[in-house]
Amino acid sequence: MTWKARLLVGAVVLFLACNIILLFLKNDKINRTYHAEEWTAVKKQDLLETMPAKGVLAPKEEQHFYYENSIGAFNGFLVEKGDEVQPGTGLFEYSPEDIMLSKEKFQIEKEKLERELISIESHIGDLENMQRSLALIPSEDDGPNPDTYLIQTIVRDIAEMELQISRIESEIRKYDDLIGATDKSLSNLIVESEITGTVKNIKHDLTNPIITIISNEQKVKGVFSEQEISKVEEGMKVFIIPEGSNHKTDGSIEKISYYPTSKPNVETESRYEFSIVMNELPEFKSFHGKHVDIRIVLNEVIGTLTVPDKAVKKSKKGTYTYAIQQNGLLERKSIKAGTKINQTQEVKEGVENGEFVLLERPPFLKSGFPFITSYEPKKLKKKDLTGLRKKEMLKYITRGFLSRY
């Protein structure tokens, strides 16, 4: 290498070294302009972390009805499978014959006891009259009444009969209760539906449950994998979206079964059932068995300021971002970061809604740097200009010239 070549190389190295030193010197006063290529506005929005899942619409409630021999004989069904029912719709009825026979039997027993009671009370009255008559017979020589023993016997008999009356009255009250129960049974011979729904099943052999009703109201059923169940809890908010649709219905996880759907096996992954209640009637056409997409809200921050994650930088002094100022300079702003969900970062303090921040950060960038952006006429729309007032247009034109020169 000749001395000229060495001189040229040395000059180039010296030039680059000086520029690098000037570039990173903290107190240099060289005015450098940064070409900003990517920036975005701080947004105020709800920050949601969701987990997708699959589900199917199913009846919210399934009500079973049982036939009880103790109430009476079965008389017949009043509905058929597939019938629509409302609260109060008769489903099946008991025969009144057995109940009527029981009531007549109870009534006969009660009347028998009442006649026995009247007879005993009449006998007691006779004994009391006899007791008074014997007590009035005068004794000879002022001695004791010769009928004292007879009077005492009458008193003892009366006491025994009064005990007997008490027992009979108790028996009469018992039959009154039984008769009342039969009257109640007669008024409840027809078993009625308690919900609005459809008759799902009828068992004509009278094996219980003899009728099953499914409600028209729906819930969502599905299964979680082992990984999914570790992230969710009962009560979590969900969005229910029919497959191939944009309609959304709010709901919440009603129940999670922590026992797998099948016998645990070392070789296979376990799955766990869950159900979701809908907080409102779905706006989409729904029917039992319809498949839906589910978004389970794992984390949620309402109405918070957010920026893309790559707009946030970290250093030993804390977390910060670079904001684009209207005076044409960049400002490094310390921020208090909050929840980060996917590629979006919550900012609790340090920026304002609508403020522009850079999405990139070269290592030499410092607060106070002037910046420029590319002129992209294709992105400039006529309505953007017509929406500006004359004063605003003049202000931006003047600022552009001043920033340029």
Q: Please, could you describe this protein's structure?
A:
This protein is α+β, with helices and mostly antiparallel strands and 405 residues long. The protein has six helices and 22 strands. The chain has helices spanning 3-24, 96-136, 148-187, 226-229, 382-386, 390-404, and strands spanning 34-36, 39-41, 43-59, 62-65, 74-77, 84-85, 90-94, 190-192, 197-202, 211-215, 218-225, 237-242, 249-256, 271-278, 291-308, 313-315, 318-324, 330-334, 336-341, 344-349, 356-358, 371-373. The strands form six sheets. A six-stranded antiparallel beta barrel has the order 3-11-14-13-12-15. Strands 4-10-9-6 form a four-stranded antiparallel sheet, with no helix packed on it. A three-stranded antiparallel sheet has the order 5-7-8, with no helix packed on it. The two termini are 44 Å apart. Mean pLDDT is 85; it is low at 26-30.
Count helical runs. Answer: 6
Overall pLDDT level: 85
Largest sheet data: 6 strands, antiparallel, barrel
- Straight-line N-to-C gap: 44 Å
Approximate shape: elongated
Structural class: alpha+beta
How do the SSEs run, as a string of H and E?
A: HEEEEEEEHHEEEEHEEEEEEEEEEEHH
**Order of strands across the biggest sheet?**
3-11-14-13-12-15
- Rg calculated over all Cα atoms: 47 Å
| Percent range of helical residues | 25-40%
Percent of residues in beta strands? 25-35%
- β-strand number: 22
Search tags:
single chain; 405 residues; alpha+beta; six-stranded antiparallel barrel; four-stranded antiparallel beta sheet; 6 helices; 33% strand; elongated
Summarize it.
With 405 residues, the protein is α+β, with helices and mostly antiparallel strands.
